Every structure is written in structure tokens, then in C-alpha cells.
Amino acid sequence: MLAPVKYRVTAIKYVAKWYPWIIHTMLTVHHLETSRSQRVLWLLEELGVPYALKLYQRNPLTKLAPPELKAVHPLGKSPVITDGDETVAESGAILEYLVETYGAQAQGDLADLQPAPGTPEYRQSRFWMHYAEGSLMNWLVMKLVFVTIPTQPMPFFVRPIARQLCAQVQAKLIDPNVETALAFMETHLSHHVWFAGEELDIADFQMSFAVEAALARGAEVARFPHLAAYRARMQARPAYQRAVAKGGPVVMSQ
Ligand SMILES: N[C@@H](CCC(=O)N[C@@H](CS)C(=O)NCC(=O)O)C(=O)O
């Protein structure tokens, strides 16, 4: 049974009055489609933290972020979150902020997202947190850029030159580095369930997008079975699936 009209009007006025405040204070993820922001959605889903999701589309031609992201943070990249008066950019910094702010109550296999300093797990966790963005993602982004350049609009007589140049850079520089990275991760994951050891760790969230991107870009799953099994473990988690359902596909289709 519906409430009397006067109560309904009061309720609508109340919501209208407080809506801007709720939106301002609520943790908001500014999520660019097919981006590293997936890491943040996955962590929030695991922790069960309520959040608002603001979706941004890439420019269909350039694949760059829309200018509105610069209104959130001067770098204009995703992920970026706002939480009350805080604005946090850089996925590693965001993951650390979320674990420090909301991770204390986490239980079960989420209880040790940040291992105790001084332990081997802590050193591994630090390593993979830095390696993801400091080294690995650079090669994966370069690979995507050099695959994409020859497909961009350009005078017809330039295209064969662009194609050959990009193929050379890929063969001599990018592919060997991606191959080394894949072999390195494969060996590590042949001894460990998760990147920092036997427990799910903050570094797994940071590495998740790189693993998805690496396996999506031509690395044969059969050659890297441990890496593929790691990805399957991650994708099997209900929180990961909820994050994908809300944020959309993780990596760009080529
Ligand atoms: N190191 C940054 C990288 C941020 C970044 O480059 N994000 C990409 C999405 S994966 C982006 O915003 N690209 C759009 C653009 O550069 O315009 C992080 O980890 O947050």
C-alpha cells in the first residue's frame, strides 16, 4: 500500500535536498571503459564497500579518455576516485588508500591484503605493486600503440612505411621485453597461488589488469599455463564477475 501523498511529497523533498550531499560524500569511481580502473572495482566488490560508478567512454578513434576526466583530476586518467573531500589518482595509490581506509574489517582470504612489513610476502607484495606500473604496463601499452599506429588515418603512401617501422620496433624492442615478462610471471606463478604467496594480496589487484592485457594480446595461453590458471582463478571470483558486470569488458578488443 502506498503512503499518503503528503508523506510521499515530504520524502521526495528530503531526497532532493540531500541528494547532492550524498553524491558528494559517497565514494565514487570514475571508470573509463576497458581500463586499469577494473582493479579498483574488483577490490571494492571484494571488500563490499558501497560506491557510485561514473562511466566514461574512450574517444572511438584515438582511444583516449574524454576531457571530463580532467575536471576530476588534472591528469585526466582513469582510475581516479573521489571519497568525500579526497581525490585519489594512480591505481596503486588508490588500492592502498582503499585497503588502509576500508580493509581493516576484511575477513577470510581478504584478511591479509597487506602483509606484515618485514615478511617475505610483504617484499613480494611491494615488488609486484611497483612492477605492474613501473615496468610491465609500459611494454603492454607500447605493444598496443605500435599495433594501432598503422591502422590510424594517414596518407596512403605513408602507411607501408608506418607498418614496417612499427613491425621493426615490435620485433626488436617490444616483443622480446613482453616475452621476458611473461616468462618471468609464468615461473613465479608455477610456485605461488597468488603474486605475493599463498594468499590473495593487494598486489593481485594491481597485477590483474596487466595479466588480462598480456593474455589478451596474443600470448598463447598454452605456452603460459600457470599465468592462464592464475587468470582463471581471478575470473572465477564472484566479486571479479560483479566488477566486470558493472564496469564492462576489461581489455579493449583489437
Ligand atoms: N599509472 C596510471 C596509469 C593511468 C592511465 O594511463 N590510465 C589509462 C587507462 S588504462 C587512461 O586513462 N588512458 C586514457 C588517456 O590516456 O587518455 C595508473 O595506474 O593509474
Describe this structure in words.
The protein has 254 residues and is α+β, with helices and mostly antiparallel strands. The protein has two domains: 5-106, Glutaredoxin (3-Layer(aba) Sandwich), CATH 3.40.30.10; 110-246, Glutathione S-transferase Yfyf (Class Pi), Chain A, domain 2, CATH 1.20.1050. It has nine helices and four strands, in the order αβαβαββαααααα. It has a four-stranded mixed beta sheet with strand order 2-1-3-4, sandwiched between helices. α2 links the parallel β1 and β2. α2 (38-47) crosses α9 (238-247). The chain is globular and about 70 Å long. The model has no long low-confidence stretch (mean pLDDT 92). Glutathione (GSH) is lined by residues 32, 35-36, 64-65, 77-79, 90-91, 133.
N-to-C SSE series?
Answer: HEHEHEEHHHHHH
Name every ligand kind in the structure. Answer: glutathione
The count of DSSP E runs of length 2 or more, i.e. the number of strands, is 4
Beta-strand percent range? 5-15%
CATH topology of the largest domain: Glutathione S-transferase Yfyf (Class Pi), Chain A, domain 2
N-to-C span: 52 Å
CATH class of the largest domain: Mainly Alpha
The coarse overall form would be globular
Derived structural class: alpha+beta
Biggest sheet record = 4 strands, mixed
* Low-pLDDT segments: none
Trace the largest sheet across and list its strands: 2-1-3-4
Structure annotation, total helices: 9
> Structurally, how many domains make up the residues?
2
Mean pLDDT: 92
Helix content: 55-70%
Q: In the CATH hierarchy, what is the architecture of the largest domain at level 2?
A: Up-down Bundle
